[in-house]
Amino acid sequence: MGERGSGLTETARRAAGRPEAATGAKGEAAKIRFQDVTKRFRVREGKEVKEFTAVDGLDLDVRPGEFMAVVGPSGCGKSTLLDLLAGLSRPTSGQILLDGRPVTGPGMDRGIVFQQYALFPWRTAQANIEFGLEAKGIGARERRELARHYLALVGLSGFEGRYPHELSGGMKQRVAIARSLAFDPEVLLMDEPFAALDAQTRESLQAELLRIWEQTGKTILFITHGIDEAVYLGQRVAVMTARPGRIKRIVDIPLGRRSEEEDVRSAAAFGELRHEIWNELREEVRLSQTQAVPSAAGGRAVR
Predict the structure, then answer these.
(1) Average pLDDT of each block of 10 consecutive residues along the chain (303 residues)?
(2) pLDDT of residue 293
(3) How far is residue 140 from each of residues 161, 173, 190, measured CA to CA in Å?
(4) Which among 206, 202, 127, 213 has a CA at the least distance from the CA of 169?
(5) Cβ neighbours of residue 96 closer than 8 Å, sequence gap 6 or more
(6) CB-based contacts of 256, cutoff 8 Å, min separation 6
(7) Pairs from 281-286 (Cβ < 8 Å, separation ≥ 24)
(8) What does pTM read for this prediction?
(9) What is the rounded distance in angstroms from the CA atom of residue 228 to the CA atom of residue 235?
(10) How far apart are CA 162 and CA 113, in angstroms?
(11) Which stretches does the entry tag as region Disordered (predicted)?
């Protein structure tokens, strides 16, 4: 899982204060860079059009092959970050770089996994994975082999012919992850993918995701509301402020390599890190609860 720090004291010292954009190892360029990114939306309320700032002047670097978790209060712009990086939306100002090149739209170098599974109900698990490969012009035999390989990677060998309605929620999300991995993106963007699952399934898939990350070496940006999930999965955790979202602090997670045999969540270091992050979030959550959201009163976005 890569190199980590050796203690909480060092973690606290390095993470203290409002960070500049984080950097990778010495001489290592960032894989992903958010550089002074601001995103505003125009929202209509009745006859008025108002401006709504989701994120403001945000800086964040993600290292090659890193698992970066992002936590923040509701409405702070976490999902907006993923939309911007996915190329589904453009920043109002600032820029987003992938391998030093500006992101100007969607691309096959980025795979996305949402909370909703978004599987085609008329296609089998294997056929759902093959769909994106068809768009790339990959031949039928290679598509079939790739789909089966990635179904095996997520633990679904033997379920190739099942339709979504024949799969549990956890299995559907495994298919969605396999589909995103199958076209071999460099970066995997995950927007609360386990939020709708029960606790046992969620913890099982968290461990599965770490195993997949270790095997593939993908760069992962993982959005979550759960502090426990962020600490368990992330090499680093970026804590966002209340809206407009900025990076308040980046916390290193020096827990070493996780394994299914160890209950890392019961370790003292895990509890300390969770408490450290909650201390950063507590005031932001309070602030977010006092903020009015323009669209909450029936407003709608203006394109």
Answers:
(1) 38 36 56 97 80 94 97 92 94 96 93 86 95 87 94 93 94 91 92 88 89 92 95 96 95 81 84 95 90 52 45
(2) 60
(3) 16, 24, 28
(4) 202
(5) 32, 33, 34, 35, 37, 84, 85, 102, 103
(6) 1, 4
(7) 281/71, 281/72, 281/73, 281/227, 281/239, 284/72, 284/73, 284/76, 284/239, 284/240, 284/241, 284/242, 284/248, 285/73, 285/242
(8) 0.83
(9) 13
(10) 20
(11) 1-27
Single-letter residue type at 256 = G
Q: What is the pLDDT at residue 251?
A: 97
**Longest distance between any two alpha carbons in the chain, whole Å:** 60
Which residues in 69-105 are b (16+ Cβ under 10 Å) and which e? bbbbbebbbbbbbbbbbbbeeebeebebbbeeeebee
* CB-side neighbour CA atoms (13 Å) of 42: 6
- Whether cis (ω within 30° of 0) applies to the bond prior to 244 is yes
Where on the phi/psi map is residue 37: left (φ > 0), alpha (ψ -120 to 50), or beta? beta
Burial 179-191 (b: 16+ CB within 10 A, else e): bbbbbebbbbbbb
User: How many beta carbons lie within 10 A of that of residue 274, not counting itself?
Assistant: 18
- pLDDT at residue 52 in the model: 87
Token pair 């820029």 is found at: 95
pLDDT at 296: 43
Contact 270, 39 (CB under 8 A): no
Residue type, 230: A
Q: Which pLDDT value is given to residue 62?
A: 97
